Amino acid sequence: SSGINAEYGVNTLLRDEITVIDKDHEALRFGYFRNPVANGNNQNRENLREIINKLGQKSATAQGLNGSITSFEQLLSGEQRCYILKDIETTNPNGVVLGLLKVGSKKLFFLNGELNQVEVTPLCVLDFYVHESCQRRGHGYRLFSFMMQREGRAPGALAIDRPSEKMLGFYKKRFNLSAPMKQPNNFVVFRDFFKSYVPTSNKRWPDQHNRGPIKLKAVERPPSGKKIIPAPVRAVAAQPVAPAVPVRQPSAPDPPLVLPSLLDRPLSRL
Fold first, then answer.
1. CA-derived radius of gyration, the chain
2. At 210, is the pLDDT very low, low, confident or very high (cuts 50, 70, 90)?
């Protein structure tokens, strides 16, 4: 099968089509560094470590990076979340992993459309990879759709860390977002990003030339006043906040994907 094959039961580690791995996941929430010998006997944990590290290495190679930016150890101690997609239609008894999407919130300083410096803590896309053998089949779009529904974010409200040209092309094709605004810190946002945030205060600074960055916070409702329509949610392992909905069977047709959107225009379903 296409994707990353494993020598052990992927389906045991990743029970759903898309599984969210973070520090609260059942395989990570024990004191790994406090008792490495005992935890080293946890084979499921070691197998999951191998999957995540291999995905991180594959992603770094595909992006031409000197080192991996996604690892098992990062997820143990940080506030990052990794969405892992597996192939539920494979005939491989050990299972196949197709890709990953890593996100996390970061405090950042951006320049808005008026070239004012703003301070914001957006949800950031930190790593994104789909195996080369199964690209252009909608797997990346499925990962993003699931993540945005679970995180409650629209594509234009996300900040992207050092996106490649292929990533920017993905955004243009899938979400009709173009003309990226490159920031001095190597993050990229789109014009709609600043529609999703408002100042935390209406305070006027006495010194117009030395007032510091404008602090922003996420708006609680879409700027257009349109009601967000949630997308269907699939069951996610070890995530009690997500509704437990049966995963589709291989023979069943794909359910329609409806993205929550803060945009005034519809998203592309190409």
1. 20
2. low
Cβ proximity of 119 and 214 under 8 Å: yes
Residues 119-158 pLDDT 10s: 999 999 999 999 887 778 889 999 999 999 999 999 999 9
Answer positive or negative: Cα dihedral of 74, 77, 83, 89. Answer: positive
Nearest by Cα to 262 from 171, 172, 195, 177: 195
The pTM of the full predicted model, rounded to 2 decimals, is 0.73
Tokens 């992006």 correspond to: 63
The alpha carbon of 206 is separated from its chain's Cα centroid by a whole number of angstroms, namely 40
CA dist 67 to 169, 200, 229, 235, 267, Å?
Answer: 24, 37, 39, 33, 34
Maximum Cα interatomic distance, the chain, rounded to a whole number of Å: 68
SS3 at position 229: coil
Q: Are 109 and 115 in contact (CB under 8 A)?
A: no
